[in-house]
Amino acid sequence: MNTLLRGRDLITLADWSVGEIRTVLEVAFDMKRRYALGQYEDLLKHKTLFMLFFEQSTRTRNSLEGGMTQLGGHAHDLTPDKMQITHGESPKDTAKVLSRMGDAISIRNCFYDLGNAYLEEIAEHAEVPVISMQDDLYHPLQGLADLMTIQEHFGADLKGLKVAVSWAYATTHAKPLSVPVTQALLFPRFGLDVVVANPPEFPLQDSMLARARKLADAGGGSVSVVDSMDDAIAGADIVIPKNWGGFAHFDDFVDDEDHARVMKENLEKHKDWICTTERFAAANKGAKIMHALPADRGNEITDELLDSEHSIIYDEAENRLHTSKSLLSLLMGGRP
Ligand code: CP
Q1: For residue 76, what are the β-bridge partners?
Q2: What is the pTM of this model?
Q3: For the chain, which domains are there?
Protein backbone atom coordinates (compact mmCIF):
# COMPACT_ATOMS: atom_id res chain seq x y z
CA MET A 1 0.00 0.00 0.00
CA ASN A 2 1.28 3.46 -0.96
CA THR A 3 0.56 6.03 1.76
CA LEU A 4 1.95 9.04 -0.12
CA LEU A 5 -0.69 9.82 -2.75
CA ARG A 6 -1.73 13.17 -1.26
CA GLY A 7 -1.42 15.95 -3.86
CA ARG A 8 -1.05 13.67 -6.91
CA ASP A 9 -2.81 14.28 -10.25
CA LEU A 10 -4.70 11.51 -12.03
CA ILE A 11 -4.91 12.08 -15.79
CA THR A 12 -4.20 8.49 -16.82
CA LEU A 13 -3.67 5.35 -14.75
CA ALA A 14 -0.90 4.41 -17.20
CA ASP A 15 1.26 6.96 -15.32
CA TRP A 16 0.50 5.35 -11.95
CA SER A 17 2.26 2.26 -10.63
CA VAL A 18 0.40 -1.00 -10.00
CA GLY A 19 1.09 -0.49 -6.29
CA GLU A 20 -0.54 2.96 -6.33
CA ILE A 21 -3.60 1.62 -8.15
CA ARG A 22 -3.85 -1.28 -5.69
CA THR A 23 -3.86 1.28 -2.85
CA VAL A 24 -6.92 3.04 -4.34
CA LEU A 25 -8.69 -0.31 -4.69
CA GLU A 26 -7.87 -1.45 -1.14
CA VAL A 27 -9.21 1.80 0.32
CA ALA A 28 -12.26 1.57 -1.98
CA PHE A 29 -13.14 -1.88 -0.62
CA ASP A 30 -12.89 -0.45 2.89
CA MET A 31 -15.08 2.52 1.89
CA LYS A 32 -17.68 0.14 0.42
CA ARG A 33 -17.77 -2.00 3.57
CA ARG A 34 -18.35 1.10 5.68
CA TYR A 35 -20.98 2.42 3.24
CA ALA A 36 -22.89 -0.87 3.67
CA LEU A 37 -22.83 -0.27 7.44
CA GLY A 38 -23.99 3.35 7.09
CA GLN A 39 -20.68 4.59 8.49
CA TYR A 40 -19.43 7.93 7.24
CA GLU A 41 -16.26 9.77 8.18
CA ASP A 42 -15.53 13.47 7.52
CA LEU A 43 -12.22 12.83 5.82
CA LEU A 44 -12.67 15.87 3.55
CA LYS A 45 -14.52 18.27 5.86
CA HIS A 46 -14.43 21.89 4.56
CA LYS A 47 -12.79 20.73 1.32
CA THR A 48 -14.08 21.63 -2.14
CA LEU A 49 -13.81 19.67 -5.38
CA PHE A 50 -14.41 21.71 -8.53
CA MET A 51 -16.05 19.56 -11.22
CA LEU A 52 -15.85 21.10 -14.69
CA PHE A 53 -17.97 19.27 -17.25
CA PHE A 54 -17.67 20.08 -20.96
CA GLU A 55 -20.04 17.11 -21.58
CA GLN A 56 -22.98 15.38 -19.95
CA SER A 57 -22.59 12.80 -17.20
CA THR A 58 -24.72 10.67 -14.89
CA ARG A 59 -22.26 8.33 -13.12
CA THR A 60 -19.19 10.54 -12.93
CA ARG A 61 -21.04 13.62 -11.74
CA ASN A 62 -23.11 11.85 -9.12
CA SER A 63 -20.42 9.52 -7.79
CA LEU A 64 -18.11 12.49 -7.20
CA GLU A 65 -20.78 14.80 -5.83
CA GLY A 66 -22.34 12.08 -3.65
CA GLY A 67 -18.88 10.95 -2.61
CA MET A 68 -17.80 14.45 -1.53
CA THR A 69 -21.00 14.82 0.52
CA GLN A 70 -20.39 11.49 2.24
CA LEU A 71 -16.82 12.57 3.04
CA GLY A 72 -18.01 15.82 4.62
CA GLY A 73 -16.89 18.10 1.77
CA HIS A 74 -18.52 19.82 -1.18
CA ALA A 75 -18.40 19.25 -4.93
CA HIS A 76 -19.03 22.29 -7.09
CA ASP A 77 -20.75 21.35 -10.37
CA LEU A 78 -19.46 23.62 -13.14
CA THR A 79 -19.84 23.92 -16.91
CA PRO A 80 -17.85 26.24 -19.23
CA ASP A 81 -20.87 28.54 -19.65
CA LYS A 82 -21.13 29.00 -15.88
CA MET A 83 -17.52 30.17 -15.89
CA GLN A 84 -15.51 32.62 -18.00
CA ILE A 85 -14.19 29.74 -20.12
CA THR A 86 -16.92 30.46 -22.66
CA HIS A 87 -15.53 34.01 -22.88
CA GLY A 88 -12.05 32.63 -23.54
CA GLU A 89 -10.42 32.61 -20.07
CA SER A 90 -7.17 30.66 -20.35
CA PRO A 91 -6.55 27.25 -18.78
CA LYS A 92 -3.68 28.84 -16.82
CA ASP A 93 -5.87 31.52 -15.21
CA THR A 94 -8.66 29.00 -14.57
CA ALA A 95 -6.20 26.63 -12.89
CA LYS A 96 -4.52 29.33 -10.78
CA VAL A 97 -7.80 30.83 -9.55
CA LEU A 98 -9.51 27.52 -8.72
CA SER A 99 -6.34 26.43 -6.87
CA ARG A 100 -6.70 29.48 -4.58
CA MET A 101 -10.31 28.62 -3.73
CA GLY A 102 -10.56 24.86 -3.36
CA ASP A 103 -8.73 21.59 -2.93
CA ALA A 104 -8.93 19.69 -6.25
CA ILE A 105 -10.00 20.28 -9.86
CA SER A 106 -11.70 17.57 -11.90
CA ILE A 107 -12.44 17.97 -15.60
CA ARG A 108 -14.36 16.12 -18.32
CA ASN A 109 -13.36 17.31 -21.77
CA CYS A 110 -13.72 14.69 -24.49
CA PHE A 111 -13.26 16.95 -27.53
CA TYR A 112 -11.13 15.04 -30.01
CA ASP A 113 -7.48 16.14 -29.99
CA LEU A 114 -8.22 18.87 -27.41
CA GLY A 115 -9.52 17.28 -24.21
CA ASN A 116 -6.36 15.65 -22.87
CA ALA A 117 -4.28 18.68 -23.88
CA TYR A 118 -6.66 20.93 -21.93
CA LEU A 119 -6.34 18.75 -18.82
CA GLU A 120 -2.56 18.67 -19.11
CA GLU A 121 -2.45 22.47 -19.37
CA ILE A 122 -4.67 22.85 -16.30
CA ALA A 123 -2.46 20.35 -14.42
CA GLU A 124 0.68 22.27 -15.40
CA HIS A 125 -0.61 25.40 -13.67
CA ALA A 126 -2.79 24.03 -10.86
CA GLU A 127 -1.48 23.91 -7.30
CA VAL A 128 -4.03 21.29 -6.24
CA PRO A 129 -4.65 17.76 -7.60
CA VAL A 130 -6.17 17.57 -11.09
CA ILE A 131 -8.39 14.56 -11.76
CA SER A 132 -9.61 13.47 -15.17
CA MET A 133 -13.34 12.82 -15.33
CA GLN A 134 -12.71 11.55 -18.90
CA ASP A 135 -10.99 13.09 -21.88
CA ASP A 136 -10.51 12.12 -25.53
CA LEU A 137 -7.84 9.57 -24.53
CA TYR A 138 -8.47 8.25 -21.02
CA HIS A 139 -11.19 7.56 -18.44
CA PRO A 140 -9.26 6.61 -15.28
CA LEU A 141 -12.22 6.80 -12.88
CA GLN A 142 -14.05 4.22 -15.00
CA GLY A 143 -10.94 2.04 -15.10
CA LEU A 144 -10.71 1.99 -11.30
CA ALA A 145 -14.37 1.02 -10.90
CA ASP A 146 -14.05 -1.66 -13.59
CA LEU A 147 -11.05 -3.22 -11.88
CA MET A 148 -12.71 -3.15 -8.46
CA THR A 149 -15.80 -4.84 -9.94
CA ILE A 150 -13.70 -7.53 -11.60
CA GLN A 151 -11.87 -8.22 -8.32
CA GLU A 152 -15.20 -8.35 -6.48
CA HIS A 153 -16.55 -11.02 -8.82
CA PHE A 154 -13.38 -12.97 -9.69
CA GLY A 155 -11.10 -12.47 -6.67
CA ALA A 156 -7.78 -10.68 -6.26
CA ASP A 157 -5.77 -12.96 -8.57
CA LEU A 158 -6.91 -12.12 -12.09
CA LYS A 159 -4.09 -13.88 -13.95
CA GLY A 160 -5.32 -15.68 -17.06
CA LEU A 161 -8.85 -14.28 -17.16
CA LYS A 162 -9.93 -13.31 -20.67
CA VAL A 163 -11.73 -10.00 -21.25
CA ALA A 164 -13.49 -9.30 -24.55
CA VAL A 165 -13.57 -5.55 -25.18
CA SER A 166 -15.74 -5.43 -28.27
CA TRP A 167 -16.90 -2.57 -30.42
CA ALA A 168 -20.70 -2.60 -30.81
CA TYR A 169 -23.22 -0.79 -32.96
CA ALA A 170 -25.00 2.25 -31.45
CA THR A 171 -27.18 5.07 -32.64
CA THR A 172 -27.22 7.26 -29.51
CA HIS A 173 -23.91 9.07 -29.97
CA ALA A 174 -20.35 8.37 -31.08
CA LYS A 175 -18.73 7.48 -27.79
CA PRO A 176 -15.11 8.39 -27.04
CA LEU A 177 -12.30 5.85 -27.38
CA SER A 178 -11.22 6.55 -23.81
CA VAL A 179 -13.07 3.68 -22.11
CA PRO A 180 -11.72 0.79 -24.26
CA VAL A 181 -8.28 2.43 -24.36
CA THR A 182 -8.21 2.68 -20.56
CA GLN A 183 -9.28 -0.96 -20.24
CA ALA A 184 -6.60 -2.13 -22.69
CA LEU A 185 -3.95 -0.11 -20.88
CA LEU A 186 -5.03 -1.14 -17.38
CA PHE A 187 -6.34 -4.71 -17.21
CA PRO A 188 -3.24 -6.58 -18.50
CA ARG A 189 -1.13 -4.93 -15.78
CA PHE A 190 -3.23 -7.01 -13.38
CA GLY A 191 -2.75 -10.25 -15.32
CA LEU A 192 -5.83 -10.13 -17.54
CA ASP A 193 -5.75 -11.07 -21.23
CA VAL A 194 -7.61 -8.37 -23.17
CA VAL A 195 -8.96 -9.17 -26.63
CA VAL A 196 -10.13 -6.06 -28.47
CA ALA A 197 -12.59 -6.66 -31.32
CA ASN A 198 -13.53 -4.01 -33.86
CA PRO A 199 -14.55 -3.56 -37.50
CA PRO A 200 -11.75 -2.08 -39.65
CA GLU A 201 -13.25 1.43 -39.56
CA PHE A 202 -13.19 1.62 -35.77
CA PRO A 203 -9.70 0.78 -34.52
CA LEU A 204 -8.12 1.86 -31.26
CA GLN A 205 -5.06 4.04 -31.79
CA ASP A 206 -1.90 2.08 -32.71
CA SER A 207 0.10 4.16 -30.22
CA MET A 208 -2.25 3.18 -27.39
CA LEU A 209 -2.13 -0.50 -28.31
CA ALA A 210 1.67 -0.35 -28.39
CA ARG A 211 1.75 1.23 -24.93
CA ALA A 212 -0.79 -1.31 -23.64
CA ARG A 213 1.39 -4.20 -24.87
CA LYS A 214 4.45 -2.71 -23.20
CA LEU A 215 2.59 -2.30 -19.89
CA ALA A 216 1.09 -5.79 -20.28
CA ASP A 217 4.54 -7.39 -20.42
CA ALA A 218 5.33 -6.17 -16.90
CA GLY A 219 1.94 -7.24 -15.54
CA GLY A 220 1.75 -10.73 -16.98
CA GLY A 221 -1.36 -10.10 -19.08
CA SER A 222 -1.73 -9.53 -22.81
CA VAL A 223 -3.48 -7.42 -25.45
CA SER A 224 -4.58 -8.74 -28.83
CA VAL A 225 -6.88 -7.46 -31.57
CA VAL A 226 -9.40 -9.43 -33.66
CA ASP A 227 -11.98 -8.34 -36.24
CA SER A 228 -14.98 -10.30 -34.96
CA MET A 229 -17.13 -9.99 -31.84
CA ASP A 230 -17.62 -13.78 -31.86
CA ASP A 231 -13.88 -14.46 -31.83
CA ALA A 232 -13.46 -12.13 -28.86
CA ILE A 233 -16.35 -13.65 -26.88
CA ALA A 234 -15.27 -17.29 -27.41
CA GLY A 235 -13.85 -18.47 -24.09
CA ALA A 236 -14.10 -15.03 -22.45
CA ASP A 237 -14.69 -14.56 -18.73
CA ILE A 238 -15.81 -10.95 -19.08
CA VAL A 239 -17.56 -9.44 -22.09
CA ILE A 240 -17.73 -5.67 -22.58
CA PRO A 241 -19.75 -4.76 -25.71
CA LYS A 242 -19.54 -1.02 -26.28
CA ASN A 243 -19.60 1.46 -29.10
CA TRP A 244 -16.75 3.84 -29.78
CA GLY A 245 -16.31 6.41 -32.53
CA GLY A 246 -13.85 6.17 -35.36
CA PHE A 247 -11.84 9.15 -34.18
CA ALA A 248 -8.62 7.47 -35.20
CA HIS A 249 -9.59 8.37 -38.78
CA PHE A 250 -10.72 11.89 -37.97
CA ASP A 251 -7.77 13.56 -39.59
CA ASP A 252 -8.58 12.02 -42.98
CA PHE A 253 -11.64 14.23 -43.40
CA VAL A 254 -11.98 17.69 -44.88
CA ASP A 255 -14.40 19.00 -42.24
CA ASP A 256 -16.78 17.96 -39.46
CA GLU A 257 -19.68 17.47 -41.88
CA ASP A 258 -17.64 15.13 -44.10
CA HIS A 259 -16.49 13.23 -41.02
CA ALA A 260 -20.04 12.84 -39.69
CA ARG A 261 -21.28 11.57 -43.06
CA VAL A 262 -18.55 8.96 -43.46
CA MET A 263 -18.84 7.92 -39.81
CA LYS A 264 -22.56 7.30 -40.28
CA GLU A 265 -21.95 5.28 -43.44
CA ASN A 266 -19.32 3.19 -41.64
CA LEU A 267 -21.56 2.72 -38.63
CA GLU A 268 -24.50 1.47 -40.70
CA LYS A 269 -22.31 -1.28 -42.20
CA HIS A 270 -21.97 -2.93 -38.80
CA LYS A 271 -25.49 -3.14 -37.36
CA ASP A 272 -24.88 -6.82 -36.71
CA TRP A 273 -22.28 -6.00 -34.03
CA ILE A 274 -24.79 -6.51 -31.22
CA CYS A 275 -24.12 -8.71 -28.18
CA THR A 276 -26.92 -11.25 -27.80
CA THR A 277 -27.62 -14.17 -25.49
CA GLU A 278 -26.79 -16.56 -28.35
CA ARG A 279 -23.41 -14.92 -28.94
CA PHE A 280 -22.65 -14.75 -25.21
CA ALA A 281 -23.21 -18.53 -24.97
CA ALA A 282 -19.71 -18.98 -26.42
CA ALA A 283 -18.18 -17.30 -23.36
CA ASN A 284 -16.89 -19.32 -20.40
CA LYS A 285 -19.23 -20.69 -17.73
CA GLY A 286 -19.76 -17.98 -15.12
CA ALA A 287 -18.80 -15.21 -17.54
CA LYS A 288 -20.00 -11.69 -16.80
CA ILE A 289 -21.27 -8.77 -18.86
CA MET A 290 -19.86 -5.36 -18.05
CA HIS A 291 -20.59 -1.93 -19.53
CA ALA A 292 -19.48 1.53 -18.39
CA LEU A 293 -22.96 2.88 -19.26
CA PRO A 294 -24.88 4.61 -20.68
CA ALA A 295 -25.77 1.55 -22.80
CA ASP A 296 -27.52 1.74 -26.15
CA ARG A 297 -30.02 -1.03 -25.40
CA GLY A 298 -31.13 -3.01 -28.43
CA ASN A 299 -28.12 -1.85 -30.45
CA GLU A 300 -24.94 -2.54 -28.45
CA ILE A 301 -26.55 -5.35 -26.47
CA THR A 302 -29.99 -6.88 -26.08
CA ASP A 303 -32.16 -6.07 -23.05
CA GLU A 304 -32.38 -9.80 -22.36
CA LEU A 305 -28.62 -10.11 -21.85
CA LEU A 306 -28.04 -6.75 -20.17
CA ASP A 307 -30.76 -7.54 -17.61
CA SER A 308 -29.70 -11.18 -17.16
CA GLU A 309 -27.98 -12.84 -14.19
CA HIS A 310 -24.70 -12.53 -16.12
CA SER A 311 -24.78 -8.75 -16.00
CA ILE A 312 -22.85 -6.87 -13.31
CA ILE A 313 -23.38 -3.39 -14.75
CA TYR A 314 -24.97 -1.91 -11.64
CA ASP A 315 -22.17 -3.19 -9.38
CA GLU A 316 -19.80 -1.56 -11.85
CA ALA A 317 -21.76 1.72 -11.68
CA GLU A 318 -21.96 1.65 -7.87
CA ASN A 319 -18.23 1.04 -7.63
CA ARG A 320 -17.72 4.42 -9.30
CA LEU A 321 -18.80 5.85 -5.94
CA HIS A 322 -16.45 3.79 -3.78
CA THR A 323 -13.39 4.13 -6.01
CA SER A 324 -13.97 7.88 -6.36
CA LYS A 325 -14.34 8.32 -2.58
CA SER A 326 -11.12 6.38 -2.11
CA LEU A 327 -9.27 8.46 -4.70
CA LEU A 328 -10.55 11.79 -3.40
CA SER A 329 -9.62 10.88 0.18
CA LEU A 330 -6.12 9.82 -0.83
CA LEU A 331 -5.40 12.81 -3.10
CA MET A 332 -7.20 15.62 -1.25
CA GLY A 333 -6.85 14.34 2.29
CA GLY A 334 -4.60 11.52 3.28
CA ARG A 335 -1.66 11.64 5.62
CA PRO A 336 -0.85 15.24 6.65
N1 CP B 1 -19.45 5.70 -17.46
C2 CP B 1 -19.54 7.04 -17.34
O3 CP B 1 -18.55 7.77 -17.27
O4 CP B 1 -20.82 7.50 -17.20
P5 CP B 1 -21.24 9.03 -17.32
O6 CP B 1 -20.90 9.49 -18.70
O7 CP B 1 -22.71 9.05 -17.03
O8 CP B 1 -20.47 9.81 -16.28
Answers
A1: 50
A2: 0.96
A3: 13-139+319-332 (3.40.50.1370), 142-316 (3.40.50.1370)
